[in-house]
Design a protein that fits this description.
- It contains 17 helices and ten strands.
- The protein is α/β, with parallel strands linked by helices.
- It has four domains: about 70 residues, DNA Methylphosphotriester Repair Domain, CATH 3.40.10.10; about 100 residues, Arc Repressor Mutant, subunit A, CATH 1.10.10.60; about 55 residues, 2-Layer Sandwich (Double Stranded RNA Binding Domain); about 100 residues, Winged helix-like DNA-binding domain superfamily/Winged helix DNA-binding domain (Arc Repressor Mutant, subunit A, Orthogonal Bundle), CATH 1.10.10.
- The strands form three sheets. Strands 3-1-2-4 form a four-stranded mixed β-sheet. A four-stranded mixed β-sheet has the order 7-6-5-8, with helices on both faces.
- Helix 3 packs across helix 5 and helix 3 runs parallel beside helix 6.
- The longest helix is centred in the middle third of the chain and has 18 residues.
- The two termini are about 40 Å apart.
């Protein structure tokens, strides 16, 4: 059974919410009807005491339950394969726009069926998925300093009208303003020493836009100035102090979650990944593969890794809890030593097995050297 829904309480919550992201992670069966369903099934919600959970459609069928005629749970593996092929076709060349008809022809299903499958599994339509990919490519190009026209062409926008008409909402502003790196924004920030080195927290009027760790407060400030070169940066320790206190309490083990308003932009897919990261329990880890599988897109491991790497708010979105498939620490923008220290501390406090002693000792030595 999928580790993202590791207790019956988690699974029942997903059924109550009819969460499409849980489809494929498990199935539920109803004793009074003899039917088993996907978590997202729109059928009338059964009583909790009549529900049993299974890790696969085969297990539910072997227990004597028949598939629901409404959500057709027995067809889920095939559905996943269709959506994976569709994503692969869309990812092959971000500059090429595929219509729904072209995409459905590529995966050999009807446009209507593909639209429904894609929306249920991914959470957005094929058109929205393509738009999110173009928006991400545009954002990366603008952050590199590319001109708006060149960045737009490279991202797959074939005309200025399409560019300005479709991505302002995703970037949070017009592309030209985005390229100006925060012009017109007011960003408050402060830094403080912590158990993991210095932390810098920055916030707009809407919420936290950056939580970054480093060995030197000055370097963290310079990185902030580079990212928001045209913004009005205001050091305000009083304003940021409550946020830093939450970070400090987390590092001391006094709290396991955050209550922070965030102001971070993301594509639809990256937002789904970040939501999945926030659902990883304190003291536990997942592999990039497991996160992709939990989202229903097992072929998108690299995209999941990219979403983790793009996280600007350390700890608030716990990308440090994601490892490579074999258990290796993999990358962490604030340093592998900090990632290892975080995981080790969380594991000990949650009373679960810590990282292998050799790996922990190695990265702790790196952290000591850096200090």
């Amino acid at each position: 059974m999928d580790t993202a829904y590791h207790t019956d309480t988690d699974r029942w919550d997903a059924v109550v919410a009819r969460d499409p992201r849980a489809d494929g992670a498990f199935f539920y069966a109803v004793a009074t009807t003899g039917v088993f369903c996907r978590p997202s099934c729109a059928s009338r919600l059964p009583r909790r005491e009549n529900v049993a959970f299974f890790g696969s459609a085969g297990e539910a069928a072997a227990a004597g339950f028949r598939p629901c005629k409404r959500c057709r749970p027995e067809g889920l593996p095939r559905d996943m394969a269709i959506v994976e092929r569709a994503c692969a076709a869309l990812d092959a060349d971000p500059q090429t726009r595929l219509t729904l008809a072209q995409l459905s022809e590529a995966v050999h299903v009807s446009p209507f069926h593909l639209q429904r499958l894609f929306k249920r599994v991914i959470g957005v339509s094929p058109r929205e998925y393509q738009a999110a990919r173009r928006g991400a490519a545009l954002r990366d190009a603008l952050q590199r300093g590319d001109g708006v026209t060149r960045a737009a062409l490279d991202a797959g926008f074939n005309s200025p009208s399409r560019l300005y008409g479709s991505v302002a909402g995703e970037l949070g502003m017009a592309p030209s303003a985005y390229r100006k790196r925060g012009e017109g924004l007011r960003v408050y920030y402060a830094s403080a020493p912590t158990a993991l080195g210095h932390v810098l927290v920055a916030a707009t009027e809407k919420g936290i836009c950056r939580i970054a760790f480093g060995d030197d407060a000055g370097a963290l400030g310079e990185a902030l100035q580079h990212a928001f070169a045209k913004a009005e940066l205001i050091e305000d320790r009083t304003r940021i102090a409550p946020f830093i206190e939450q970070v400090d309490a987390y590092l001391r083990g006094a709290r396991e979650t955050f209550d922070l308003p965030l102001d971070v932009s993301a594509t639809a897919f990256r937002q789904r990944v970040w939501d999945a990261l926030r659902r990883i329990p304190y003291g536990e880890t997942r592999s990039y593969t497991e996160v992709a599988e939990a989202l229903g897109v097992p072929g998108s491991v690299r995209a999941v890794a990219s979403a983790c790497a793009s996280n600007e708010v350390a700890l608030a979105i716990p990308c440090h809890r994601v490892l490579q498939k074999g258990g290796a620490l993999a990358g962490y923008r604030w340093g592998l030593a900090r990632k290892a220290a975080l995981l080790d501390a969380e594991a000990r406090r949650a009373a679960v097995a810590p990282l292998p002693a050799g790996a922990t000792a190695l990265v702790r030595a790196d952290l000591d050297d850096a200090a």
